[in-house]
Design the sequence.
């Protein structure tokens, strides 16, 4: 009898062991059923966008290590190497598990790249962050495009300059950007707003970082010219540049020579400020409240309080992370591609506590609102001063009806 009991106990233990192994096998993580691709610029051209892609990899792993995120970068000189950029973009679609592709920033050539992807892989979701091609062109090939609100901000940024006591608004750009409908239209609204607000309008041309001079040459030009611009237009001038690479040298020189910098074209506390101020933010990486505090203290220490502004969270970082989260939620069946609320909730993943204000893009010629292109912005935070309540400003309706006049 004892022997029978022992046999039964041993058999029971073996059965339990077998169940345990079976349960362990079921609990093991399954292989990814989809991949999400993201293409950004490099550190020298658009660091914030790239850091957002790195955050997605930190959350969900890279494809080469069994994760779901595939990140590639486009060339710094993407205008001269446009076909290379398009090939890199379309190659993402060669992965049979690729189900969503994000382009941030969506530089010229993105529309053609997306068109080619649509032809061979209509199942892939396509997202464009800060597209630099005409809205009607990009709207034909994307599921969702998102821009920093180039219409509302065309009024609110000069409005902020006026609140700061500025008397002049200096706009720095180059022909490639001014031929873009989004950037060119904002420039026209800037000029009209300056006229209405009583600010002197000044437009100056600087080298394009994608031209033969490269990023280094373009930045050197800003370093050399900014002291002369401040001397010519006065220390009560607000300066604004349309290019990320121009931002750091502009901030550095304004800090030394005077002038105001209400916010960057794509605002962020890490857009230009760390390099301009010579501060290390590696310990605060990804913690934007801590980053904001450290940058603010450095600006105050250098005597720049009340002259330099930003958004509390990085726009480029937020779009990379937000679109990644949005794509994942759609593919997991937890969000809908045509839901603006779902998109804003995903953007909130990168900006806890911050509110996004946004509207569907309205074509000024027809008055028709696009359902797949959304313009967004946050309130402006002036270091050493606080929030400017720019999101409370009612932008006059006339600015939404200004039509783009392409510059020659």
Sequence:
């Amino acid at each position: 009898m004892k022997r029978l009991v022992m046999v039964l106990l041993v058999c029971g233990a073996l059965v339990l062991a077998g169940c345990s192994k079976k349960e362990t096998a079921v609990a093991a993580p399954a292989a990814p059923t989809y991949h999400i691709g993201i293409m950004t610029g490099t550190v020298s051209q658009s660091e914030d966008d790239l850091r957002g892609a790195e955050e997605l990899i930190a959350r969900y792993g890279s494809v080469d290590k069994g994760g779901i995120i595939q990140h590639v970068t486009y060339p710094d000189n993407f205008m001269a190497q446009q076909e290379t950029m398009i090939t890199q973009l379309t190659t993402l679609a060669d992965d049979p598990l690729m189900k969503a592709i994000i382009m941030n920033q969506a530089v010229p050539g993105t529309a053609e790249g997306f068109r080619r992807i649509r032809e061979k892989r209509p199942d892939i979701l396509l997202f464009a962050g800060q597209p630099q091609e005409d809205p009607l062109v990009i709207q034909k090939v994307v599921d969702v495009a998102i821009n920093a609100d180039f219409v509302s901000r065309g009024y609110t940024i000069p409005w902020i300059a006026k609140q700061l006591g500025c008397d002049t608004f200096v706009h720095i750009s180059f022909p490639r950007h001014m031929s873009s409908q989004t950037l060119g239209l904002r420039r026209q609204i800037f000029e009209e707003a300056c006229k209405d607000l009583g600010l002197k309008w000044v437009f100056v041309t600087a080298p394009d970082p994608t031209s033969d001079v490269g990023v280094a040459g373009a930045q050197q030009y800003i370093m050399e010219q900014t002291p002369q611009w401040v001397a010519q237009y006065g220390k009560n001038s607000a300066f604004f540049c349309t290019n990320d690479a121009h931002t750091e040298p502009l901030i550095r020189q304004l800090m030394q020579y005077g002038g105001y910098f209400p916010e960057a074209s794509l605002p962020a506390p890490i857009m230009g400020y760390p390099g301009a101020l010579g501060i290390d933010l590696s310990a605060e990486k990804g913690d934007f409240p801590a980053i904001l505090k450290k940058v603010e203290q450095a600006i105050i220490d250098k005597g720049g309080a009340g002259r330099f502004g930003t958004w509390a969270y990085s726009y480029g970082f937020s779009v990379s992370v937000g679109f990644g989260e949005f794509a994942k939620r759609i593919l997991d069946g937890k969000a809908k591609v045509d839901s603006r609320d779902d998109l804003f909730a995903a953007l909130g993943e990168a900006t806890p506590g911050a509110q996004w204000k946004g509207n569907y893009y309205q074509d000024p010629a027809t008055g028709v609102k696009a359902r797949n292109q959304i313009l967004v912005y946050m309130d402006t935070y002036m270091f050493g001063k606080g929030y400017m309540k720019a999101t409370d400003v009612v932008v006059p309706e006339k600015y939404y009806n200004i039509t783009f006049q392409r510059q020659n």
Q: What stands out?
A: The first helix runs from residue 2 to 27. Confidence is low (pLDDT under 50) at residues 1-17, 19-27. The first strand starts at residue 35 and ends at 40. DSSP finds 14 helices and 13 strands in the chain.
